[in-house]
Design goal:
It comes from Mangrovibacter phragmitis. By secondary structure, this protein is mostly beta strands. It folds into two domains: about 35 residues, N-terminal domain of TfIIb, CATH 2.20.25; about 55 residues, SH3 Domains (SH3 type barrels), CATH 2.30.30.40. It is built from no helices and 13 strands. The chain is elongated.
Length: about 110
């Protein structure tokens, strides 16, 4: 079976890990059923693997401690009109009662 070249660095030394392809040279991971994305296109997935886009409404799936505060963001909290950003915390949003905040996409699910 011929494995595809890495879409990021064009390396031929890719390998398959379950449903994902991995490039050992640049550490890029992608799925075969995904369309090839340009490097400037940000793809963010929620905890269930659904693709998120700007303006989506998501629900928090785990109680989250808020840094710098004694309060906790409870499970089931709905967050409307998210904005996707680069970085570790890739969701920028405003939460009623908390204000502006950044979240990790692995702790939310798309509604």
């Amino acid at each position: 079976m011929q494995l595809p070249q890495c879409p990021k660095c064009q390396s031929e030394y890719t390998y398959q890990d379950n449903l994902m392809y991995v490039c050992p040279e640049c550490a890029h991971e992608w799925r075969d059923d995904e369309p090839a994305h340009q490097d400037d296109t940000l793809v963010v997935r929620d905890a269930n693997g659904n693709t998120l886009i700007d303006g989506d409404t998501v629900t928090v799936i785990k109680d989250l401690k808020v840094k710098g505060s004694s309060s906790t963001l409870k499970i089931g909290t709905r967050v409307k009109n998210i904005r996707l950003v680069e970085g570790d915390h890739n969701i920028d949003c405003k939460i009623d009662g908390f204000g502006p905040m950044k979240l990790k996409s692995e702790f939310v699910k798309k509604n």
